[in-house]
Design a protein that fits this description.
It is a single chain. This protein is mostly helical and 97 residues long. It contains three helices and no strands. It has one domain. The two termini are 27 Å apart. The mean pLDDT is 80. Keywords: Membrane, Transmembrane, Transmembrane helix.
């Protein structure tokens, strides 16, 4: 696998996995850290909640899009080399013989 599709794939996996962990773990962690807030603490909690929700909503779809982009880049790279997906490129000696 070329360097760019491989790097894109790992970023996609990291974002999708991180987004899933945020989705599962952060709400209970925030509730444990801020059990009963009022006034200034509630404002901070609301601001933190908006940021966390934004990251949660963007991380998984962006990770999935990066994974799909890595697959497309790998496929197009193979097509440009004259091979189908999964085939090993042949050298000139292999084609002639």
């Amino acid at each position: 696998m070329d360097a760019t599709p491989k790097r894109t794939l790992w970023w996609g996996i990291g974002l999708a996995g991180g987004g899933a962990l945020l989705l599962v773990l952060i709400p209970s962690a925030i509730s444990a850290v801020f059990p009963a807030l009022d006034g200034v603490g509630q404002t901070f909690f609301d601001a933190l909640n908006v940021v966390v929700n934004l990251v949660q909503q963007l991380a998984i779809p962006l990770g999935s899009a990066l994974i799909a982009a890595a697959i497309v880049m790998q496929y197009l790279g193979g097509r440009r080399a004259g091979t189908a997906l999964g085939e090993v490129p042949q050298t000139g000696a292999d084609r002639a013989g």
